[in-house]
User: Which sequence fits this backbone?
């Protein structure tokens, strides 16, 4: 356990250094590490303990650079969204949200390719409604995953804030979220003693990082800061995409197989307890087929099934979906080693 805490501590210092230079992202770096040590539902608690301490330390160091207009619009709408996100942990797998976030982060690739003139363009200030909406969305995402990270970094960069203002304003916005989330997670039972130790290790590392990074930040220009910010979003997105996808495949028992039935190639995708069959033909295009039980058939086909089952040993049924075409059904009728395929429209 001690060795785990030490390694997490050293890794957290590095993560928060990178986070300061990139305008954020330590949480997205730490999520995969914590996911390997804790249950998925407890990761947000441990992460929030550490990131709350990080926000406190950054506010103390950069308190004069806080952009209060954003703070006053952002925070009030993020709090109720945290409640909603934390409550949904009981019903949703956070890994799917992480997968969506990773795609959003990678979508920032065009930003890193822009010229200095394009990046220096100051956007029109966001309306109060947009600021409130961003606060709500950030609270919702943070409530489920325990992290906001680089997801809203693009908003701060395009708003025209300098690097110190981005670090300070983000910290102020996120501190109230983190403290509120801790109360919610504890009340819902999403915590453990080991998760607390890991969170405190991250917290200690964040204090060291915040007080040392202020000596590095003055040597980084605003342009380089923006480039690094967008670049880190893309890298974090690729890393998070790989990690969340592999965990989803493992935990939801996703696997793909290819079979030949009556001379036709079918690709079967298994997910949890369900399976879907993908079939592509030049004439008919892509078909998605789902195995169903006889009771799910329309009445006229249920009657047809009752007649056919007297003639065959076994009948397997698939419901077929095609783009801009009516739903149809395929009956795979077995008699000994002989197979007959029958197709019916809905």
Assistant:
């Amino acid at each position: 356990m001690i060795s785990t805490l030490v390694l997490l501590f050293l890794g957290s210092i590095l993560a928060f250094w990178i986070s300061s230079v990139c305008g954020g992202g330590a949480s997205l770096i730490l999520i995969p590490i914590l996911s390997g040590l804790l249950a998925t539902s407890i990761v947000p608690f441990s992460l929030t303990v550490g990131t709350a301490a990080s926000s406190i330390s950054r506010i103390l160091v950069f308190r004069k650079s806080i952009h209060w207009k954003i703070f006053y619009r952002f925070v009030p709408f993020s709090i109720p969204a945290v409640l909603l996100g934390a409550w949904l942990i009981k019903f949703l797998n956070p890994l799917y949200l992480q997968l969506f976030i990773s795609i959003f982060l990678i979508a920032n690739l065009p930003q890193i390719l822009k010229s200095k003139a394009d990046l220096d363009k100051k956007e029109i200030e966001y309306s109060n409604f947009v600021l409130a909406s961003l606060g709500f969305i950030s609270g919702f995402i943070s409530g489920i995953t325990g992290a906001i990270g680089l997801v809203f970094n693009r908003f701060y960069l395009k708003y025209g804030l300098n690097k110190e203002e981005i670090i300070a304003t983000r910290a102020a916005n996120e501190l109230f979220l983190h403290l509120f989330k801790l109360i919610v997670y504890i009340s819902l039972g999403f915590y453990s003693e080991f998760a607390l130790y890991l969170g405190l290790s991250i917290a200690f590392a964040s204090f060291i990082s915040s007080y040392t990074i202020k000596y590095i930040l003055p040597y980084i220009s605003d342009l380089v800061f923006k480039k690094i910010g967008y670049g880190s979003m893309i890298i974090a997105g690729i890393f998070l995409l790989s990690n969340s996808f592999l965990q989803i495949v493992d935990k939801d028992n996703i696997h793909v197989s290819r079979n030949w039935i009556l001379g036709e190639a079918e690709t079967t995708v298994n997910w949890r307890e369900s399976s879907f069959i993908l079939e592509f033909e030049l004439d008919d295009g892509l078909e998605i087929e789902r195995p169903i039980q006889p009771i799910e058939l329309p009445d006229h086909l249920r009657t047809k099934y009752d007649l056919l089952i007297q003639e065959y040993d076994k009948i397997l049924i698939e419901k077929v979906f095609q783009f801009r075409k009516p739903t149809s059904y395929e009956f795979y009728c077995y008699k000994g080693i002989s197979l007959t395929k029958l197709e019916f429209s809905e």
Notes: The two ends are 60 Å apart (CA to CA).
